[in-house]
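Design a sequence for this backbone.
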């Protein structure tokens, strides 16, 4: 009877120990998953923040007696201007696009490449309306600025204003162009950022943990 009690106690101890070990492993697994999720959030947010800052930075080019005011790529960044066809032409094959130059080195499987194409299509559709509206607003801004620049230039050549007055007018016009461009960007930044975040999340789901780590190192 005493031996039976001892055996029962040993069995109970073993069960308790096994349960404790299992609970610890489960806790560690949950903690690891939480850490990975937090790391991904930090990495993806950093990438998206960088794209957002770059987009909202209104870099004005041109603006002289011979050049019109303009912003590269209609004021859109590479990250926001990406479309599905970039995977076939200048992007994926020749790696002119930074995103694809980083993706190309990951040796994607055919399945991953197919999923990435679908993600790109979804990204393109997500932002299509805002990209179109952005470009239309930008085209109107450029036209207004160019008409104003040509008017100043005509006044200069006809002797109605001095060179100093022309330069003063161009400085004012540049500020107006920058203000207009910043307004356009602010109007569409929220949607473009949200679509880009979804695309980065899709990219993370498509890549393995090793590939994602390599991608972040390359792309950030």
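Sequence:
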């Amino acid at each position: 009877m005493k031996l039976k009690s001892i055996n029962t106690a040993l069995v109970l101890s073993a069960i308790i120990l096994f349960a404790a070990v299992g609970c610890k492993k489960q806790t560690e697994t949950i903690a690891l998953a939480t850490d990975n999720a937090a790391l991904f959030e930090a990495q993806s947010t950093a990438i998206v923040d960088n794209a957002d800052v770059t987009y909202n930075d209104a870099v004005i080019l041109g603006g002289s007696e011979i050049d019109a005011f303009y912003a590269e790529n209609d004021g859109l960044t590479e990250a926001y201007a990406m479309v599905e066809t970039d995977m076939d032409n200048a992007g994926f094959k020749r790696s002119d696009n930074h995103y694809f130059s980083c993706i190309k080195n990951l040796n994607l499987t055919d399945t991953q490449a197919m999923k990435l194409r679908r993600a790109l299509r979804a990204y393109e559709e997500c932002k299509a309306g805002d990209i179109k509206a952005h470009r239309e607003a930008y085209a109107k801004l450029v036209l207004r600025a160019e008409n104003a620049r040509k008017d100043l230039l005509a006044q200069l050549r006809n002797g109605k204003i001095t060179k100093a007055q022309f330069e003063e007018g161009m400085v004012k016009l540049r500020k107006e162009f920058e203000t207009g461009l910043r307004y356009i960007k602010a109007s569409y930044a929220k949607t473009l950022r949200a679509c880009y975040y979804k695309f980065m999340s899709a990219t993370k789901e498509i890549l393995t943990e090793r590939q994602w780590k390599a991608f972040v190192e390359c792309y950030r």
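Residues 2-219 form one domain.
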